[in-house]
Amino acid sequence: MKTVKLALVALVLASITSCGSGEGTAVQVSVSSNIKWTVPSKGISCYSNKTGLENNTTPEKDVTEAYFAIPTVSFQIGDKTKDTYISLIKIMYTPPNGSAQECAFADENLAALKASWWSSTNKVAYFPAGTADNAAITDCSIKCGGISVDIANFTASGTVKIYGYQVDPNDPEAQEGFVSTTYFTYGTQF
């Protein structure tokens, strides 16, 4: 089944790059507002927390020091008659005097961002046709780490890109890829 999932992701990404980005048309994305302050310690990802709970073990601190958190990602689905699948969430940021960094969420790391995705068969990140806007939101904070905290009191911006596709439930062959982008601000106040 994992091979099928990887093949689907590759197919979607290939269709997105070959047919244009479709940026901002099928699904709009936004992140919770306010500055994302950098936390000067290691953090626990949604995936580590959920696997720890399932295995009755202490979650591992798997987010490198220092990190920021994006509390929620909201999806505004344009065509609610289609199933909407999220394949990848990519966060890109460049700290002051640093190099470009990114953290990406796919497969189980992506599914861990929302309880219904995590509990679904094969841990698939998707919104079924008819999902209300208030239900199209993650419920676990995205954490991205490895930020140098040598610079006090800085703010910087970052980019969130969502890659996915929509499927007509009455015609599974009718798939349309999309890429949606939004921005956020993060920083320190040490």
Number of domains: 1
Run of helices and strands: HEEHEEEEHHEEEE
> What is the molecular shape?
globular
Distance between the amino and carboxyl termini: 47 Å
Low-pLDDT stretches are 1-24
- What fraction of residues sit in β-strands? 35-45%
Tally of DSSP helical segments: 4
Q: How many strand units? A: 10
Helicity level, as a percent range? 10-25%
Return the average pLDDT rounded to an integer: 85
Can you summarize the main beta sheet?
6 strands, mixed
Please state the structural category: alpha+beta
Radius of gyration (Å): 17 Å
Word description of this protein:
The chain has 190 residues and is α+β, with helices and mostly antiparallel strands. It has one domain (2-187). 19% of the residues lie in helices and 35% in strands. The chain contains four helices and ten strands; from the N terminus they run H-E-E-H-E-E-E-E-H-H-E-E-E-E. The protein has helices spanning 2-18, 46-55, 107-111, 115-119, and strands at 27-31, 36-37, 68-70, 73-77, 83-93, 101-105, 126-127, 142-144, 155-168, 171-187. The strands form three sheets. Strands 2, 5, 6, 7, 9 and 10 form a six-stranded mixed beta sheet that branches. A two-stranded antiparallel ribbon has the order 1-4. Strand 5 and strand 6 (101-105) form a beta hairpin. The longest helix has 17 residues, at 2-18. The chain is globular and about 55 Å long. 32% of the residues are buried. Mean pLDDT is 85; it is low at 1-24.
